[in-house]
Amino acid sequence: MVSDVPGTAKKRVRDPEARRAAILAAARTVFAERGYAKATIREIAQRAEVTHGLVVMHFSTKEKLFLAAVPGTRDLADSVQGDVEGLAGRVARSYVARMESADSADPFIALVRSAAADQHSAKALLRAMREESVNAYRAVLEGSDVPLRVDLVGAHLIGVTFSRYVLADGPIAAMSPEELTHYLTMSLRGILLGCPGGDLSATEAASSRS
Amino acid sequence: MVSDVPGTAKKRVRDPEARRAAILAAARTVFAERGYAKATIREIAQRAEVTHGLVVMHFSTKEKLFLAAVPGTRDLADSVQGDVEGLAGRVARSYVARMESADSADPFIALVRSAAADQHSAKALLRAMREESVNAYRAVLEGSDVPLRVDLVGAHLIGVTFSRYVLADGPIAAMSPEELTHYLTMSLRGILLGCPGGDLSATEAASSRS
């Protein structure tokens, strides 16, 4: 598929960015509908109206395509970036904005729904998401326990996703997006920065204000 | 099964407390092995070496038996009770002690594992657990948002249970019980009391110190 002058092709691919976006949109739909294990690159390519080869050229594997399609990984670095004080609020707003716009058809929801039934895929995907997340958070947080804190943020978001979008029952499911952002900010602050006071000396990781 | 003089029987039931404990232990095992939907009172009775009728007499329904057997509901009021400042630590210690002693064979783990596949049971059980929890927390916390906070605590513990005991992968799974208690205390503080400082006015619910 690649010509002898790669990188200089101009007319052959009309709008690579639009095709990439179409692949990602198709991937979101197929992962959300089928779950990770049953989704195939072939079906995603068909939905996006591109060839199988083009999907592989852009994303190489199903796992990489999932990680690019799932919210919270690709743009995570952007929402994390900034001062420590506002970190929890930025992460909360970014999570809520993405999940609410996805209208319950989101690959992360599919992952949480099928994780217990397909532990092998879930472990691999969550490991990859964890790694990307830790790298992003390290730009803002210091301390040897950043991986632990990031994993707790992940567990919290898995639990909230489960309550609000999978079971869709109870107070978390009934909250407005604004309320959810408010309460998530509060809980993520506790996890990421620790709370001053009490018997905890867990605030040292929050001291890396830039 | 009940004689004409209920409450005064002495010799017929040798040790009612031991039988009740045997039923609960059997229930924990069967719920953990089969999940809620597939577990039957009949099998639980057989494991406990008591009659089906005795289980019904003690617990009336499978749902009530589950709620009695699952850690964190029956004794929740005890661990919640006390001053607001130490609340998060007490809840964290109680959760960790129960989950670690259960050796991954716990009905709550089974519930989290099977919740996505059996949403109907999961909703009913989590609703009942939520109700009991809210009642317990109201003894220590004030504010109209106590149900929201309690639901967030539940979501957090679902996410942590999922990472540590269902997928059993990553930093949360690798932590020692002491580390887990430390970090859970920190995140539960954020959820239950909010963190002072920042742009949140979420600390008013923490002002009900007795």
From TrEMBL, chains A, B:
Residues annotated to bind DNA: 40-59
Keywords: DNA-binding
HTH tetR-type domain segment(s): 17-77
Gene Ontology MF term list: DNA-binding transcription factor activity; transcription cis-regulatory region binding
Cited Pfam families: TetR_C_16, TetR_N
Keyword DNA-binding (UniProt): yes
PANTHER family in UniProt: HTH-TYPE TRANSCRIPTIONAL REGULATOR PKSA, HTH-TYPE TRANSCRIPTIONAL REGULATOR RUTR
Protein name stated in the entry: TetR family transcriptional regulator
